[in-house]
Amino acid sequence: MKALVFHGPGQTSWQDVPDPSVKDAGDAIVRVDAVSICGTDLHIVKGDVPEVSPGRILGHEAVGTVVETGGDVLGVRPGDRVLISCISACGRCRFCREARYGQCRGGGGWVLGHTVDGTQAEYVRVPFADLSVHPLPSALSDQDAVLLADIFPTAYEVGVRNGRVRPGDTVVVVGAGPIGLAAVVTAQLYSPGRIIVVDLAEPRLAAARELGADATVGAREGPERLVEDLTEGLGADVVVEAVGVPEAFEMCTRMVRPGGRVANIGVHGKPAALHLEDLWIKDVTITTGLVDTRSTPMLLRLMAAGRLPGAELITHRFDLDRMEEAYDVFSRAADTGALKVVLGGPQHDTVAVRPKEQ
């Protein structure tokens, strides 16, 4: 099969690799029908995630069709259309028993495209399949559903829920990439008073307005002053960091009110200054976290009911074999206007049969 392989910082290739096979009784082999590229993948390619070793197949977001299962898999069978979660869960360790699947210590957590081969391939082995894939309703297209693999649960759990957004709150989202835009959407489930979005790119700010942001501002156009003006000098109740660079995080800590919350989502590859000389007296809560995906079933129901946007967030579509071109387009979002990039062929109507390795 073909897959996108990481060879070290700045080096990837779409190349032939061996087909995956069932290694453990809880595995499922899934044919990838739609797959997307995450900002975290760009961080990996830049070298910001040193745990990813050369030779790793990247990717952790996909929708596909089950083609084979191990003997212990009970929840899905060959032919089932499934969402592959970005988080795998053993279901037995302390953290899984607390539904904190992102912290799994039994071989799960964020493993796909990180410590085991991922989804940017024609086929993928999914460990702990009963807890790590979700059967999809026929009402959801592949390209809508793939947004539930990561960006919606991450934005909701790590941004909105960790930030404890409440009715009437002023919420600031710094970064209007896919995760930031998903935070704008899911924050509205809690009826905030206003949502303010900060970004460098006007097309992304326009997308934020279309998705419900009440005010937008360029990152170089005085966002801190705007927040101060709109809150009568108090600051925002909740600030969500959705970029992953030191400047964005430090800006968030300056915009939050006393007693407010900063929810960091961004993947940081460099140290950020924590100005405790200013923050120690303000009773500010700062949260970090990896998504657990415990909200995925609820978000699936919302999207199936038409309560969450899907294809509206997708700006570019490619065939699977144009993976390297898709990476280039996504990595140059300021020039290309890319929000979410999705790859995959036409819908499949028949049960998949894996080709034999030659």
From TrEMBL:
Instruction: Domain (Enoyl reductase (ER)): give its ranges.
Output: 8-343
CDD domains recorded for this chain?
A: FDH_like_ADH2
Q: Which cofactor does it need?
A: Zn(2+)
Q: Which InterPro entries match?
A: ADH-like_C (IPR013149), ADH-like_N (IPR013154), ADH_Zn_CS (IPR002328), ER (IPR020843), GroES-like_sf (IPR011032), NAD(P)-bd_dom_sf (IPR036291)
Q: Does the keyword Transferase apply?
A: no
What keywords sit in the KW lines? Answer: Metal-binding, Oxidoreductase, Zinc
- Give the highest taxon in the source lineage: Bacteria
UniProt keyword Metal-binding, yes or no: yes
Do you know which Pfam families this protein is assigned to? ADH_N, ADH_zinc_N
Family of this protein? Belongs to the zinc-containing alcohol dehydrogenase family.
This one is known as: Zinc-dependent alcohol dehydrogenase family protein
Origin organism is Streptomyces cavernicola
